[in-house]
Amino acid sequence: MKVLMLPLLITFFHSPVCLSVTVSSSKPNVEVHEHTDAVLACEFRTEKDPNPRIEWKKKGKGVTFVYFNNKFTGSYAGRAKMEGATLTIHSVTQKDSGEYRCEVTASEDHVNLGEATVTLNVLVPPHVPSCEVPSSVFVGLGLELLCKDKLSVPPATYRWYKDNKALTATGDTPYSIDTNKGTLKFKSVSKTDAGMYRCESSNSVGAPKSCVAQQLKVVDYPLNMTILIAGASGFVALLLFCCICVCVCRHRGCCKKSKKTKSAKSYNPPPPPPPPPTRNFRHYKPTQSFMI
């Protein structure tokens, strides 16, 4: 038995091991700031093929080529380079964020295709937010101020200022603040809420940015407006009262009518007797015979 096993072991160790192309990435997740360089690492090893074909693709709504047939395509031409299979993109923007795939094709290998995926996330510092502050509002009305920065990555958080003092919502304040949505809400505006308002957006990438402060005035209703509102309220109340009176009158009238109808329906007079049958008689004159 030992004599038979020895040649088999020698043959196994001296036979070439069948390998296929292997592709990997030492850094599958890459985060860089906007307008800097992004290095998407891709390493490969082949069995036999010394010059495999290398391609880079980007996944999105579809699949687009980045590097194909030994050259860059589309917007990557002139701002990217290849070192081995590693891709470097210069001055990246938010549009470059996404999932990239490195594909290596070795036609002489047993398994001739290998691939690795790298995810690129381009970080964007805060931009000047858009702020919506009305110029004036009437006393007692509700109010919502809006602030939005759509460009920052990761998404910005917001802070509101009145007369250059940061606002903090508590249980005693007449307003509420949503730091993620950028809203400042008042249930009922008073004269003390007038002032200069501005909003500030911030994230972990760069310095905060603020919009220009805008003046909010809180004014009383004008006299003619007050009279108009009071008159309209009185008219509505009078109209409602009239409608109620009409409904009550109709309801009582309907009740009386229904009672009369019921009493009329309860008395059913007997039908008149049928007329006696009539017979048709003809006037008959008997004939007389005379004897001579």
Automatic annotation (TrEMBL):
This is Junctional adhesion molecule 2b. The gene is jam2b. The lineage of its organism: Eukaryota, Metazoa, Chordata, Craniata, Vertebrata. Coiled coil: none annotated. It comes from the Eukaryota. One of its GO terms (cellular component) is plasma membrane. Gene3D superfamilies: Immunoglobulins. Residues 1-20 form the signal peptide. InterPro entries: Ig-like_dom (IPR007110), Ig-like_dom_sf (IPR036179), Ig-like_fold (IPR013783), Ig_sub (IPR003599), Ig_sub2 (IPR003598), Ig_V-set (IPR013106), JAM2 (IPR042625). Pfam families: Ig_3 (PF13927). Residues 268-278 have a biased composition (Pro residues). It comes from Parambassis ranga.
